[in-house]
Every structure is written in structure tokens, then in C-alpha cells.
Amino acid sequence: MIAAHPKHSFFHTTAWAQVLADTYGYSPVYFAAGEAGGIGSLLPLMEVDSWLTGRRGVGLPFTDNCDPLCADAGTLQNLFQSAVEFGKSRNWKYLDCRGGREQFGAVPPSFLFYGHTLDLTAGEDELFSRLKNSVRRAIRKAEKSGVTVEVLQSQEAVRTFYWLQCKTRKRHGLPPQPLKFFLNIHKHILSQNMGMVLLAKHHGRAIAGSVFFHLGDRAIYKYGASDETFLNLRGGNLVMWTAVKECVRRGMKHLDLGRTSLDNEGLRRFKLGWRAGEHKIEYVKFDLQKDKFVTDPRNASGWRTRIFRRMPVFLSRCLGTVLYKHWG
């Protein structure tokens, strides 16, 4: 049912739900409406129960975009009302849907992001010719510099990527998600042939990497990381191009490049350089105490970012292990 719906994504799968439940102990609370022969509509939520940030329903935690899969607006309204009633019985603070704002009618978005999707149906040669000149030059530079890329699904590859992720998050002033999260990605996703890790190496050393998930004919770029010492070799560009070619080889038609904050113009330019189509991703948030939809402006990182940039990696990892469960 999921793969047949036009708004489906990998994040609607059981595999992603298992990663979240096993890592953080979140409880799946999925609201469904039946049709002849099975489920026709779905509003996926998880209960995040935190003594630090409160109890709430989130659809879904750590997800870029997870639209309700509903046949029509009336069905969504019924499912959403059921979720609100359930949330009130569970003392949720709010209900957060990460995508599908247009299905709710005249409701203000709580958060707004750019989304970018690359159409893969043109084929490898045509896709390369469409790239911005700067992107093609970066790919060729990486190749001439001796950078190679491996497409992997092993736990060892996940651990190597995690090492790069810790470095990258420190550079961005953020703690990394716990290693357990990535090991569960291996257990529930990669080992089931629903994703891949790509690692760029230079003289045997990993210098950049990315994690991709896929379902049916759609893939999504979920995580990227790099060693800043080797940024000049453009390993990240070669990783992305290798992923594009691998997706084409596997018969996929769309590559979702994930969400981008409105103020992250550098990342937006990078994705547009691949000639990806741009759209808006809009979240909605319903305050169960005020009984209305609300906006939720993102707080500036400020002093927290500066602290995490100065923090040793081992300490940042410890804090990430503790905090991410509450941030869901």
C-alpha cells in the first residue's frame, strides 16, 4: 500500500519505525482507515515520552518528510481528529506532522524547509551533462586526485561513516546521534537491502561518506559527512555522483536530496547544482492544550553551537546519546 501511494517515502516503512523504536524507545501510534482488501489511508505517528521535553505525538521523529497517506481531505480530517483525541487521553503537549501541510487546508506551517528531488529517468549520460560546470569539475578533480568510492552495506562501513559523522557534527556545532542509532540502521535497513553506505577513500583513508535509503523506485539521501582535512579533494561530490549512477543502475526514478533549512544557502546551492527540482516542505503542529494549530519558529543555535564546536568528540558523543531521545 505504501509503495503504491504517490506521496510515499522510505520513512513510512516498518524498517524506519523499528530503528526509532529500538534506538529511542518511541512507541508507534499509527492511525489507519480501511478500504476493501486492506488499509487505504495512514497517519503515522510515534509517541515521544520525555521527562525533559514532554510527551507528544510526532510523525515521524528524525524524518525529513513524512506526508499522511490519505485518499482525500475528509479521511485525513477523521484520522487527525482520532489522533488528537488519543493524544489528549495520553496528555500529549502537541501533535507534530512533518509534511503534508497542503492536505490540512488553510493551516499555517510550523516549520518550512526546501526540498530537492532529482529525476533519474534521463539516464547517466544526460544527468552528467545537466550538472553545473562547477559540479562536473569537482567530480573530475576527485577522480584525477585518486579518490575512489565504495558502495557498501556492512556494519564496518557504518562504523567508518559514524567516525566521519562525529567530525562533521563537531564542525557544525552539533552532537552526533548515538552509534546505536546507526547500528540499528544497519540492522533494520542496510542488512535488508533497503539502503547503502558510500565511502570515498584516498590512499585507503575514508575522507567522505553518505547514507542512502530506498523503497521501490525512490531513493533518499539521508546523511552525509566528511573529513575537513581533505575537502579540497571533492570526495563528497564523487560520492553523490556515484550514488546517482548506482540508483540509475538499480532502476530508480527519483532521488530525494532531503530537506534544507531556508537559511542554509550553501547547501541549497549544492543541491541545485545537481539540477534537482526544488519544492517546499511544510510541517504542521497542533497544540493540544490550546486546541489549535501553531507556528514554532526555530531558535537560533547561538551559544550552543559554539560550545559543541569546542567540545571534545567523546564528550559530544556522550551528550548526543543522552539528548537525542528527548529531541525526537
Strand content: 25-35%
Per DSSP E runs of 2 or more residues, the count of β-strands stands at: 12
Text of the CATH class of the largest domain = Alpha Beta
CATH superfamily membership of the largest domain: Gcn5-related N-acetyltransferase (GNAT)
Radius of gyration: 20 Å
The N- to C-terminal Cα distance equals 26 Å
Envelope shape: globular
Helices and strands, in N-to-C order?
Answer: HEEEHEEHHEHHEEEHEHEEHH
| Percentage of residues assigned to helices | 25-40%
Total discrete domains: 2
Largest sheet: 12 strands, mixed
What is the overall pLDDT average?
94
Poorly predicted regions are none
* CATH-derived architecture of the largest domain: 3-Layer(aba) Sandwich
SSE map:
Layout: H1 14-24, E1 27-35, E2 38-50, E3 54-59, H2 73-89, E4 94-97, E5 111-119, H3 124-130, H4 133-144, E6 148-152, H5 155-172, H6 179-188, E7 195-202, E8 205-215, E9 218-226, H7 235-249, E10 254-261, H8 265-272, E11 277-287, E12 292-294, H9 302-310, H10 313-327
Parallel strand pairs: 3-4, 9-10
Antiparallel strand pairs: 1-2, 2-3, 4-11, 5-10, 5-11, 6-7, 7-8, 8-9, 11-12
Description:
This protein folds into 2 domains: 10-114 and 281-297, Gcn5-related N-acetyltransferase (GNAT) (Aminopeptidase); 121-252, 3-Layer(aba) Sandwich (Aminopeptidase). By secondary structure, it is of the alpha+beta class. Helix 4 packs across helix 7. Strand 2 and strand 3 form a beta hairpin. The relative contact order is 0.18. The protein is built from 10 helices and 12 strands. Helices cover 37% and strands 29% of the residues. It starts with 13 loop residues before the first helix and ends with a helix.
